[in-house]
Design a protein that fits this description.
This protein is an alpha/beta fold. It has ten helices and eleven strands. Strand 7, helix 5 and strand 8 form a beta-alpha-beta unit.
């Protein structure tokens, strides 16, 4: 097995936290990985400038709304829909970091997003609440707060994160909390083509109808019949009217929530497998 000397900078952490990361786990399948301060390969993100002091092959990775700067890195992993030979791979955050909490993972089960759901009227009767809103980031686009306030004029929206919390404290299990609701507000921190994080997948996994804003091209991967895409409406007022329509029609609600999550031909596992090929190309 080939030995590789690797360094992870920034939010990747050190030692055991690096070994728990998805990139390290992939590399460990194919190589003898040595975490080194004198690396031949360096993974880094945007959280520090530490990477500048190393002279080796540099691989940029981000979970934020950023593009790789190929003047500074040899390879890039990001959100952009672009072709740059074997130097770039699009790996949205929802493919690697959907749930961080073990109690959420235990609830998730084995979902196949490519097939129609089997959600019934009985399942719908168990959804005792209207809409969830779980965020802790105060530094997001103002659209998130604006829509929360508009929808709240129709019915109570339960805010279970630190941001705009109205339930008396932060929820411990986001998936369990969202699962009690018919809808969920799934807004990214910012809007840009290609920038889709775990937010919509968390809501879909909870069998809600996500109200999504962020990536205007989200329909390239996710089936727009399965959620409400704010980018298809002229105003948030129109979005609220659509929510009201669905909320008052159980048959319509069921027809939406039972749609396949992804578009035909798009498969999470295929993209994840392609990422392994991308990494092996770098190290081989």
């Amino acid at each position: 097995m080939k030995k590789i000397k690797v360094k992870f900078c920034g939010l990747f952490g050190e030692g055991d936290s690096v070994r728990e990361g998805h990139i390290y786990k992939i590399l460990n399948k194919y190589y003898e990985v040595e975490l080194s301060e004198n690396p031949d390969y360096l993974f880094y993100d945007d959280s520090s400038y530490e990477y500048l002091k190393y002279n080796c092959v540099k691989i940029f990775f981000t979970g934020e709304n950023l593009s790789p700067n190929f003047n500074l890195c040899d390879y890039g992993i990001g959100y952009d829909h672009m072709n740059f030979g074997d130097r770039y791979y699009r790996l949205p955050m929802y493919l690697v970091a959907v749930f961080y909490n073990k109690s959420e993972l235990d609830l998730l089960g084995n979902m196949d997003f490519t097939k129609p759901g089997a959600f019934t009227k009985q399942d719908l009767s168990k959804k005792t609440d209207f809409c969830s809103f779980v965020y802790s980031n105060y530094l997001s686009d103002s659209s998130r707060k604006e829509f929360f306030e508009k929808l709240s004029t129709y019915k109570r929206v339960d805010a279970g994160g630190r941001y705009l919390n109205n339930i008396g404290g932060r929820v411990e299990n986001k998936l369990e909390f969202e699962s009690k609701h018919k809808f969920s507000i799934a807004f990214e921190n910012t809007a840009r083509s290609g920038y889709t994080t775990e937010k919509i997948v968390c809501s879909l996994s909870a069998k809600t109808i996500p109200i999504y804003w962020g990536n205007p091209d989200v329909g390239k991967e996710f089936n727009e019949k399965r959620f409400i895409n704010c980018h298809n409406y002229r105003t948030f007022d129109e979005v609220v009217e659509r929510v009201k329509e669905i909320d008052n029609d159980d048959e319509l609600y069921l027809s939406i929530v039972n749609q396949p999550v992804t578009i035909v031909g798009y498969d999470f596992k295929e993209v994840q497998g392609g990422f392994e090929v991308f990494l092996k190309n770098i190290f081989d």
